[in-house]
From TrEMBL:
Belongs to the GPAT/DAPAT family. The keyword Membrane applies. It comes from Elysia marginata. The keyword Membrane applies. One of its GO terms (cellular component) is mitochondrial membrane. This is Glycerol-3-phosphate acyltransferase 1, mitochondrial.
């Protein structure tokens, strides 16, 4: 070190600058003034902020235990972090330090944010993709660890930004890994993890339609922020509901996780690798891996499991608001429009369905009033209404044109998450039963309506793998196959399916068994003879009750929930097959993919106009990269994309296209 005093001095100076840019300087006096101001003026643009007292009491109780509180909200709006600190202040709970992306480091506002607990971090840790910025990483790590060891609370948005689709995004592990490491290195004895979620009746900070149309994101600027604040103060945004999930101990989570296997549908990318290994068998956290690399990989899985658990929990305690439900029903059941009478009944029905899934809704009142209120908040540009004299009823029509449909689907997606797995099963049933959306709208006489249980589960798992970036389908440590099996049983109790033992006769059943045995052999699973004999059971067939119109309607509804996502994936697979003869810059590929998808929608060749949303297309490309069907690498100045040669990518893409198109034909 002494040999390079100049370099050391320079490095020290640069570190001091970075720290000054990063650190917060919280002022409880300023928090008090801001809280007073907000309590007075929030009602200018919000009808109400709904918070559950019971939840806050639990958080307060946990906050008294002398361990750091880690608030992990899903990110929906810039109002999120304001509300969290404000609510905590109201319940006399210490304000956390909040990680803010450096894009928010806007003159004047950055000062206020620092006083209110904001500390600034880079959105990407490494400014150069190919080189780790170890100094910056160490500084951030040190700063956060110091805060934690002093018992300060932290808040960060693990999705890494606001969702553009209304669905939660796959969480990032960077900041969370610092908390886990602080615990592993005994810097803290424990921490309470608090998932937080928001339901906004109306989107506050813009509808993201620009981005969904493939136009670049608008940069945050001082003037932009001032304009946005003025706009907000002169509009109305209905109510907001904030849910704080039950705080859980990090220590207990880690101890518990060590005893359970974790089978993620997605794996975090291990160091030094650029994509995911789906063929790999996942280690239990408990397995003692001697190499440091193994340990690091185990920690990665642990952090991934924790992040997934947080998002899954938040997703499942997000209460849909009136606007979400109406948008959801219009896009999944009534794309052609619906009479008020019918929609009223459907609102009752969907609330019952949600209750059965133990989900709460964030509104009450007569259904008709709720619908009219939601329509007004959504606005005429999204849902229009017309009084029809001849029918003596009002009809509501969703706007399915671009880009309005993206905004409508943003609202609807708050509900989609609850039905995602059911929808996957419904799609699989359609594929296996040689049915299509078209069949469900018409009579199905003469169409094969029997499905093999095992095949339904197999295809459902395949669909989950294809669209793994769209939802956290299940909590970590639960097994996808088991969850799907239980759900399939519920299809029987709902009479969508009826059981039929060996309906196809012994011959086919034995053929099925032979194939299964061969599959197992190929997978080199360790099946001992006894187990093999025990599993000599006839294949289970189900009859799909499509002769009943209510069942057809239900299947249609379920398939329409994932319809746009599947259509987007199918478009991407088809386009990649056509366009990626040779590798090309990812940016060019994405641009022409967006143009292709929008053209398809405009020409009326897509079933769901929202399927051409840019974020959905990007997510589908990312899935193909994760699955190693597409490869990407950083060239000189460009990121290149190509069709992987490692496996038979073309065949896989063709298979995906066929699979997805079958259900949507
Ligand atoms: C009363 C009224 C009051 C009002 C009161 C107002 C409060 C006033 C506050 C203002 C507040 C504004 C708030 C704005 C809201 C945002 O600005 S949201 C955006 C900023 N926040 C975030 O992004 C938080 C979540 N993001 C992360 O955690 C990301 O990981 C980071 C840290 C940003 C880095 O992202 P990245 O560079 O894309 O890299 P990523 O893949 O995540 O991995 C980075 C490293 O993390 C580690 N890592 C990642 N995953 C894992 C894993 N699973 N296991 C272990 N390690 C992992 C690894 O070291 C990894 O490096 P490699 O080993 O892979 O090279």
């Amino acid at each position: 070190m002494d040999a390079f005093p100049k370099q050391v001095a320079l490095l020290e100076k640069s570190c001091a600058n970075t720290m000054n840019m990063m650190k917060a300087s919280v002022s409880s006096f300023f928090i008090k003034i801001t809280a007073w101001f907000l309590t007075k003026y929030l009602s200018k643009f919000l009808r109400s902020v709904q918070v559950c007292r019971g939840q806050m009491m639990m958080v307060k109780e946990a906050s008294k235990r002398n361990v750091p509180m880690i608030y992990l909200p899903l990110h929906r709006s810039h109002l999120d972090y304001i509300l969290v600190t404000l609510i905590l202040w109201h319940y006399d709970i210490r304000a956390p330090f909040v990680a803010a992306g450096d894009n928010m480091n806007i003159p004047f506002f950055n000062l206020l944010m620092r006083w209110l607990g904001g500390f600034f971090i880079r959105r990407r840790l490494d400014s150069n993709r190919n080189k780790k910025d170890i100094v910056y990483r160490a500084l951030l790590h040190e700063y956060m660890t110091k805060l934690l060891s002093e018992g300060e609370g932290l808040e960060f948005f693990i999705e890494g930004g606001r969702t553009r689709t209304g669905k939660s995004m796959i969480p990032k592990g960077g900041l969370l890994s610092v908390v886990v490491e602080a615990f592993n290195e005994n810097e803290i004895s424990d921490a309470y993890i608090v998932p937080v979620t928001f339901s906004y009746e109306k989107i506050i900070d813009g509808n993201y339609c620009q981005e969904q149309m493939g136009l670049p994101k608008i940069k945050e600027t001082f003037m932009g922020a001032v304009k946005a604040i003025f706009k907000v103060f002169f509009n109305t945004y209905g109510s907001v509901r904030v849910d704080f999930a039950q705080p859980f101990s990090l220590k207990e989570f880690i101890t518990h996780a060590k005893t359970l296997p974790y089978h993620p549908i997605t794996l975090p990318t291990p160091p030094g690798r650029h994509s995911l290994d789906y063929g790999a068998s996942y280690p239990n956290f408990s397995s003692t891996l001697l190499s440091t690399n193994g340990e690091a990989e185990n920690t990665r899985l642990l952090v991934k499991a924790l992040a997934d658990r947080v998002v899954y929990t938040s997703d499942h305690c997000t209460a849909p608001m009136a606007t979400h439900l109406i948008a959801f029903l219009l896009l999944t059941k009534y794309r052609e429009g619906v009479y008020m009478r019918e929609l009223t009944k459907s609102v009752h029905w969907i609330i019952r369905e949600l209750q059965a899934l133990r989900a709460d809704v964030g509104f009450c009142g007569q259904s008709e009033d709720v619908i009219l209120y939601a329509q007004e908040l959504l606005g005429k540009h999204l849902v229009s209404k017309k009084w029809l004299e001849e029918d003596n009823d009002m009809k509501l029509y969703p706007n399915l044109t671009l880009p309005s449909v993206f905004e409508l689907s943003y609202y609807a997606n708050a509900v989609s998450t609850y039905f995602a797995l059911e929808s996957v099963l419904a799609v699989s049933i359609l594929i296996n039963g040689n049915l299509s959306l078209f069949h469900l709208l018409t009579s199905t006489t003469g169409v094969e309506k029997k499905v093999l249980r095992e095949k339904v589960l197999e295809v459902a798992e395949e669909i989950c793998t294809i669209i793994h970036n769209e939802f956290i389908f299940l909590p970590p440590c639960e097994n996808l196959n088991s969850v799907l099996s239980i759900l399939l049983e519920s299809f029987v109790s709902k009479e969508i399916l009826s059981t039929e033992e060996s309906a196809m006769g012994d011959e086919l059943a034995f053929a099925g068994k032979d194939r299964r045995w061969a599959d197992r052999l190929a997978l080199s699973l360790d099946v001992d003879e006894e187990e093999n004999e025990g599993s000599y059971v006839a294949d289970q067939y189900y009859q799909v009750n499509t002769e009943r119109s209510d069942i057809r309607e239900r299947l249609h509804f379920l398939v329409c929930i994932l319809g746009p996502t599947l259509e987007a994936h199918s478009m991407v697979a088809k386009f990649a097959l056509e366009e990626l003869e040779a590798e090309q810059p990812e940016e060019d590929f994405m641009k022409s993919l967006g143009d292709y998808a929008r053209e398809k929608v405009k020409a009326g060749l897509a079933l769901f106009s929202e399927s051409c949303a840019m974020i959905g297309l990007k997510s589908a490309v990312k899935s193909l990269q994760d699955l190693e069907i597409l490869y990407s690498y950083d060239g000189a100045n460009l990121r290149m994309l190509g069709l992987s040669e490692q496996q038979d990518s073309r065949t896989t893409l063709e298979h995906y296209t066929n699979l997805l198109e079958t259900a949507l034909s």
